[in-house]
Design goal:
It is built from 18 helices and 6 strands. It has 425 residues and is mainly α. The longest helix is centred in the middle third of the chain and has 27 residues. Bound molecules: s-citryldethia Coenzyme A (SDX).
Length: 425
C-alpha cells in the first residue's frame, strides 16, 4: 500500500499512534484508522462526510471541479458517444467493449428482458394507487424467490448472470409498475427493439395498436439511463454494498438500494423537483421560494440543488439541461412553463449569495423530471426510472466488493445513553 503515515496524538497517552496513509490513483488520500479499535477509540463521522468505506476502481468524482469519470472516461464524452448498455458493460468489466463484445452483451440482455409470469401475480396484490417505488422494491426483492437457490455469490459467472438479469429486467418491471397503476395490460418486451425503445413501448404501448417510438425520445431515455448509471459511494450504492457484505443475494441487495434511493434527499429528489416547480407555479413566485429555502426555520429546501460531493455544477445536470431543450422541442412544448420556471430559478439561485457561499448548484435531479414529464411520464415514476438507470452501478459495486476480500460492514457508535444501572428490587 504505502509507507506514508499520519500520527494521532491523544491526550493522556505517552506515544502518538502511527496510522498508515494510502494514495489512490487520483483524488484524496486516506488514513487507515482500522487499528484504532485496539487502542480503544473510534473515529466519529455521522453521515460519512469524511469516510472512505472501501477501495473502488469504478467511478471517480472530483466535486470541486465538477468531474465525473466512469472507469476513467468523462461522463460528458460517454453521454455524447456511448450508450446505456455500453456504459453498463464498462462499469461491470472495467474497459469499453469491442463491437463484438458489445453485440454479445446486448444479445444477452435482450434475452433476459422478460420476467417470470408469476411476477405478474405480485402486482395484483398492490392497490392501483400504490407508489411505483413501493412496487419496484417489492418485486425486485421478490426476484430472490426465483433465483436465490441457484445463485452462488462466490462464483463470478453466477454474479455476472445476476447482473445481466437485473439490468435486463428492471425496465420491464419499471414499466409494469406504471401499467398496473393505470389499469392497462402489461406490454411484453420486443426483441427487435433497443433497451430504451422497449422501455418507452412497454410504458405507452397497448395491445390495441402498433407503437412507433421517436428516435429522439429513445435516445433521450437511453442517455438519461446512462447519466444515472453510477455515482461512486452514494447512499443507495453504499446500502447495496452493506447488504452485500452480509452475503445477501444480489436481488435482495438491490431491493435495499431501491429503498434507500426513494428518499427525497437522494433519488426521490427528481419527483420532489417537479412538485416544487408546480408549487411555484409562476416565475413571479420564485423569489418567495428562494427566501423559504434560505430560512432556517423553514424545512423547505430547493429540490434538485446542492450535493454532498459536488461543490460545482453536477456535470450530469449540464448534459440533462441540453437534452431537455431537445426533447421539449421534439415534443413541441419548448415553451413548457415548468422548464421556464426551472431556468429562471437556476439563474436567480446562482446569483444569490446564500447558494454561492454554500456552493449549491443544480444536481442530476434538477432537470431530469422536466424531460420525463414532457414525455408523459407521471412524477411518481421518476425515481423508478432513476433506479432503472442506477442498476448497473449498484450491481457493479456489489460485484466489485465480492470479487475481492471483504468484511461484513459493522459501524460502531458514540454511546451517550444510560450507564449500567440495576433493575429496581
Ligand atoms: C442525488 O450522493 C450522490 O452521489 C447522490 C446522487 C447520485 O447520483 O447518487 O448524486 C443523486 O441524491 C442528488 C441529490 C438530490 N437531492 C436533492 O436535490 C435534495 C436537495 N438537496 C439537499 O437536501 C442537500 O443538498 C443534499 C442532501 C443533497 C446534500 O446535503 P449535505 O451534503 O448533507 O449538505 P448539508 O445539508 O450539510 O447543507 C450544507 C448547507 C446547509 O446550510 P447551513 O447549515 O450551512 O447554513 O447548505 C444548505 C444546508 O441548509 N443546503 C440547502 C440545500 N442543500 C443544502 N439549502 C437550501 N436548499 C438546498 N437544496
Amino acid at each position: 500500500m504505502s509507507d506514508k503515515k499520519a500520527q494521532l496524538v491523544l491526550d493522556g497517552r505517552e506515544k502518538p499512534i502511527d496510522l498508515p496513509v494510502y494514495e489512490g490513483s487520483t483524488g484524496p488520500s486516506v488514513i487507515d484508522v482500522r487499528s484504532l479499535v485496539s487502542e480503544g477509540v473510534f473515529t466519529y463521522d455521522p453521515g460519512f462526510v469524511s469516510t472512505a468505506a472501501c477501495d473502488s476502481n469504478i467511478t471517480y468524482i472530483d466535486g470541486n471541479a465538477g468531474i465525473l469519470l466512469h472507469r476513467g472516461y468523462p461522463i460528458e464524452q460517454l453521454a455524447e458517444k456511448s450508450s446505456f448498455l455500453e456504459v453498463s458493460y464498462l462499469l461491470l468489466n472495467g474497459d469499453l467493449p469491442s463491437p463484438q463484445e458489445l453485440a454479445s452483451f446486448e444479445e444477452k440482455i435482450r434475452y433476459h428482458t422478460m420476467v417470470d409470469e408469476q411476477i405478474h401475480e405480485f402486482f395484483k396484490g398492490f392497490p392501483r394507487t400504490a407508489h411505483p417505488m413501493a412496487m419496484l422494491s417489492a418485486v425486485v426483492g421478490g426476484l430472490s424467490a426465483f433465483y436465490h437457490d441457484d445463485l452462488d455469490i462466490d462464483n463470478a459467472d453466477h454474479r455476472m448472470q445476476a447482473a445481466i438479469r437485473l439490468i435486463a429486467k428492471m425496465p420491464t418491471l419499471a414499466a409494469m409498475c406504471y401499467k398496473h397503476g393505470i389499469g392497462q395490460p402489461f406490454i411484453y418486451p420486443q426483441n427487435k427493439m433497443s433497451l430504451a425503445e422497449n422501455f418507452v413501448n412497454m410504458l405507452f404501448g397497448t395491445p390495441c395498436e402498433e407503437t412507433t417510438v421517436s428516435p429522439v425520445i429513445a435516445k433521450a431515455v437511453d442517455t438519461l439511463f446512462l447519466l444515472h448509471a453510477d455515482h461512486e459511494q452514494n447512499a443507495s450504492t453504499s446500502t447495496v454494498r452493506l447488504a452485500g457484505s452480509t452475503g445477501s443475494n444480489p436481488y435482495a441487495c438491490l431491493a435495499s438500494g431501491i429503498a434507500a434511493l426513494w428518499g427525497p434527499a437522494h433519488g426521490g429528489a427528481n419527483e420532489a423537483v417537479l412538485d416544487m416547480l408546480s408549487k411555484i407555479g409562476d416565475e413571479s413566485r420564485i423569489d418567495e421560494f428562494l427566501l423559504k429555502a434560505k430560512d432556517k426555520n423553514d424545512p423547505f429546501r430547493l429540490m434538485g440543488f446542492g450535493h454532498r460531493v459536488y461543490k460545482n455544477y453536477d456535470p450530469r445536470a449540464t448534459v440533462i439541461r441540453g437534452i431537455c431543450a431537445e426533447v421539449l422541442d421534439e415534443l413541441g412544448v419548448d415553451n413548457d412553463p415548468l422548464f421556464k420556471i426551472a431556468r429562471k430559478l437556476e439563474k436567480l439561485a446562482l446569483e444569490d449569495d446564500y447558494f454561492n457561499e454554500r456552493k449549491l448548484f443544480p444536481n442530476v435531479d434538477f432537470y431530469s423530471g422536466i424531460i420525463l414529464k414532457a414525455m408523459g411520464i407521471p412524477t411518481s415514476l421518476f425515481t423508478v426510472i432513476f433506479a432503472t438507470g442506477r442498476t448497473p452501478g449498484w450491481i457493479a459495486h456489489w460485484n466489485e466488493m465480492l470479487s475481492n476480500p471483504y468484511k461484513i460492514g459493522r459501524p460502531r457508535q458514540l454511546y451517550k445513553g444510560e450507564t449500567k444501572r440495576d433493575y429496581p428490587a
